[in-house]
Amino acid sequence: MQRLTPAQRLIVAVAVLASFVAFLDGTVVTVALPAISRELGGGLTTQQWAVDAYLVTLSSLILLAGSLSDAFGRVTIMRVGLIAFGIASVAVAAAPDPLFLVVARALQGAAGALLVPSSLALITATMRDEVQARAIGVWTACTTAAQLVGPLLGGLFVDFLSWRLVFLINVLPIAVTLLLLRRVQLPEHQRGAKVDWWGGALCAIGLAALVFALIEQPRLGWTAPAIWLSGLAGIALLFGFVARQRRIAEPMMPLQLFRVRNFAWGNLSTLFVYAALSLNGMVIGVYLQQGAGLGATQAGLASLPITILMVLLSSRAGSWAGKHGPRIFMTLGPALMAVGALLLLTVGSDFDYWWQVLPSMLVLGLGLSLTVAPLTSAVLGSIGAERSGIASAVNNAVSRVAGLFVIALLSTIVGGRLDLAGFHSAAVVTAALFAIGALVSWIGIRRPAQSAGGS
């Protein structure tokens, strides 16, 4: 097995740290939501916007950021993203009211969008074949870990310091990454690379308008002009985005990638699985505090078994999928997670973590461990090495959009209140999403040929 050179290890370290910042901040907020709404007000709506304002800009700009990386240089775009992310994080920590918080979170997501594709581009531009696959595997494992340890870190900060300091966790990794970035030497841009500004605007504004309608609808009603007009506008703009991607010569999201079977079905499975993960993560983090009366740290620790099982099993699952193909694991994993979500229906008014939540966390952790590496392998392995960067960016965008919309629908899913009945409703919807993800994988995923093509 070919070893990474010192220069390649530096590239991987920078890519992991930069992405870790963006993904950590997407989940660290979860356990801070009750404290945020207590201090700033706004209830469930503020909590939804604190999550979705970040996801709207992150998911809608992540593909545009890939074009910026090609046009202006990966190192330059990453440096801008890191500095902007740090400034936006300070603004979130200083937020005096919900509106300021939401705007700062949106800016934070926009900066985060600059980090993910540029970090992947560093890997794909400097490594090939087996070395590239190993580097992408390390990147995927670390970004997944960031999403899993986020709630625990957030809980510790909320309980022992302040929810505001939750958003400053990333200051140290940003500083370290900026220092390491000074040692990275790469060609700074491609001649003639174009940026699809109109496509980026259509995607960002369309997603924002649709999410606004979904979040505010329970409060204003579908008949309110602000709701149905923004909803229709969002749908029209997103259709316009897809139409533009079909028409232009250098699209942000090359639609021909979806002609590759495992890429198309793998992304559809990603949509349902990551929607379920986002819904489950937010509901667990909030309900265990507001409904079950746990502290923020305890709520963060609740999902620790998932992290432990991921560390122990995910690499083995990747090896098994390499031998037997990803289909069985992408089916069995989400199916197990559906069972884990249904186990949360045992949560009652007399709360007991050990009997009502821990069994669910164990089953969810086992299922997630079987799913993540095979899913990544199926999606990226179906596309040629020369297009793996954009393939990974598209898959990341799909997973963020999945979380974006399910959080926007949270109030509808839980019936307006995240009480015990709402918690149970969310568990059922989560299980259904996981089950659909399993079904999609079983129907669509095939064992890849010995050498994946995919242009």
UniProtKB/TrEMBL annotation:
Membrane topology, from the record: Multi-pass membrane protein
Gene3D superfamilies given in the database record: MFS general substrate transporter like domains (1.20.1250.20), Multidrug resistance protein D (1.20.1720.10)
Keywords from the named record: Membrane, Transmembrane, Transmembrane helix
Compartment list: Cell membrane
Listed CDD domains: MFS_MMR_MDR_like
Keyword Ribosomal protein: no
Name recorded for this polypeptide: MFS transporter
Organism: Leucobacter iarius
